[in-house]
Design goal:
With 322 residues, the protein is an alpha/beta fold. It has 2 domains: 3-131 and 252-321, FAD/NAD(P)-binding domain, CATH 3.50.50.60; 134-248, 3-Layer(bba) Sandwich (FAD/NAD(P)-binding domain), CATH 3.50.50.60. The protein contains 8 helices and 17 strands. The chain has helices spanning 14-26, 40-43, 74-87, 167-178, 202-211, 256-262, 305-308, 310-321, and strands at residues 3-10, 30-33, 92-93, 98-104, 107-112, 116-124, 131-132, 145-146, 159-163, 183-187, 215-217, 221-225, 229-234, 237-242, 245-248, 252-253, 288-290. Strands 1, 2, 3, 4, 5, 6 and 17 form a 7-stranded mixed sheet that branches. It has a 5-stranded parallel sheet with strand order 8-15-9-10-11, with helices on one face. Strands 12-13-14 form a 3-stranded antiparallel sheet, with no helix packed on it. Strand 5 (107-112) and strand 6 (116-124) form a beta hairpin. Helix 1 packs parallel to helix 8. The two termini are 26 Å apart.
Length: 322
């Protein structure tokens, strides 16, 4: 027997929760389904991460977000969104993956890993943090290769390679260096550290590279990963570097396959921007909406929690008009 709702929200991140809150306000039957835990993407951030946004810009549902400093930490954010979900008694279905969506007349038949649903409207708020860009080189499947970074302790006394030159790569390289890695080597396909790296961090990484504490190979790529070393192609030729662990901080991308499965058109532009109407957030598929970071496609810096909270209100306003 399928559970019937007016709205099924895919993704229990901050924006998915905000959509649930608007459903509560409008007295619309709904569920929020996520394949992981509550705010799963935030949970997978590094343990000591600090947000770029101030706490007030991360608030949803009128619940105050009080943090020790203007910019909250990961642990404070997890506590806050747990409190939001509890305060609003949000109807979440966690550790439940959506496997199939079928359209039948004016309803969506939705099959998850645990049960079935019938919904009049579908809101996709899945973010982009689940699918890392792969290096696509031999050896990438080895356990020593990580696409997510948690904390520096496991890298003590290890030869570590960090792939990438954006904020996450720089933060990781500096932290594992300061926490006792035997060596830290950055492999960077561009000719310099990303210009968008935080301005207060840029001098630190530049100075560590300049003094040789951290080795950086620019205009370079890893071509093979082995248990004890990596092969790197540099402008000066191919080299072999002793290596215990590879942290591939190469960024992440949305789950385009799920969007396509539902029938959402993906643009031909460089960012593969999904089709939606800006005033309602409805896609080319009737009664299917997008909310949050997923709206930017590959341009993952276009939408954040603070500038996409309003999507929830826009969507529920559109649904109520029907």
């Amino acid at each position: 027997m399928s559970e019937e709702v007016d709205v099924l929200i895919v993704g229990a991140g901050p924006i998915g929760l905000a959509c649930g809150i608007e459903c509560e306000k409008a007295n619309l039957p709904y569920v929020i389904v996520d394949k992981g835990c509550l705010v799963n993407s935030l949970y997978n951030y590094p343990r000591n991460m600090t947000f770029f946004s101030t706490s007030d810009r991360l608030e949803i549902g009128g619940v105050p977000f009080i943090s020790h400093n203007p910019k909250p930490t990961r642990s404070e954010a997890l506590e806050y969104y747990r409190r939001v979900a509890s305060s609003w008694k949000l109807k979440t279905r966690l550790y439940e993956r959506i496997e199939k969506v079928e359209k039948e007349d004016e309803l969506f038949n939705i099959h998850s890993s645990k049960q079935g649903y019938r919904a009049k409207n579908l809101i996709i708020a899945t973010g982009f943090y689940d699918l890392p860009y792969l290096l696509n080189v031999p050896g990438e499947e080895l356990p020593k290769v990580k696409h997510y970074y948690d904390e520096p302790h496991p890298y003590y006394d290890m030869d570590v390679a960090v792939v990438g030159a954006a904020n996450s790569s720089v933060d990781v390289a500096l932290e594992v260096y300061r926490k006792g890695a035997k060596s830290v080597t950055m492999v960077i396909r561009e000719e310099e550290i990303n210009p968008r790296v935080k301005y207060w961090v840029r001098p630190d990484i530049d100075n560590r590279i300049r003094e040789g504490s951290i080795t950086a190979h620019f205009n370079s790529n890893i071509t093979r990963i082995a248990e004890r070393f990596i092969d790197v192609r540099t402008p000066n030729g191919d080299i072999i570097i002793a290596n215990d662990l590879v942290l591939a901080m190469t960024g992440y991308q949305p789950d385009f396959s799920f969007l396509e499965h539902v029938g959402v058109e993906i643009g031909n532009d460089e960012f593969k921007t999904p089709a939606y109407y800006e005033k309602t957030m409805q896609t080319n598929v009737k009664n299917v909406y997008l909310a949050g970071v997923i709206c930017g496609g590959l341009k993952t810096n276009a939408w954040f929690i603070e500038n996409s909270r309003e999507h929830a209100e826009m969507i529920i306003k559109s649904i109520k008009k029907k």
